[in-house]
Amino acid sequence: MKTPFREILEDTPIIAAIKDMDGLEKCLESDIRVVFILFGDICNIGTIVKRIKDAGKIAMVHMELVNGISGREVALDFIKQYTEADGIITTKNTLIKYARQLGLYTVHRYFVMDSMALSNIEKQAGSIQPDVIEILPAIMPGIIRKVDSFSKVPVIAGGLIADRHDVMTALDSGAVAISSTSQDVWFL
Question: Looking at the whole model, is its pTM more than 0.90?
């Protein structure tokens, strides 16, 4: 039985979000346990995931940011069968549901741009059950607290996290973890 994603995040609440090969190399040098893959293509995603897995880390593939992978269920079949990925990140409800059926960890990513987006998160909180939700940008402690208050699953705060203060503010506001592309944050 695999470890619940929440427990993994509670042990290591800083997530490396990598957007290029330089980020991949740097995250492999860190103590980070979870890696969000925000780049790649259908030809190299298996290799990227394998490098992360070989380093003993958890690899999460962002389905909308890998070139050549569609937003359809067959893309999840590909990720499950041809990579060693532990899970996915997506903005799509249907992919969350199917990924859970496949036994993958799931992160439902939301962009909180206005009150309508916040209302949408609240409406979906009861029907869609990812392992965690991620809200962006993370520099809104009041919004993190609000989402955490109605969410049935843990909250990750991502986007614009640049230093220890940002990390601590997000965690103190109720986020179970943060994701950041800032390599300085990975080594805090």
Answer: yes
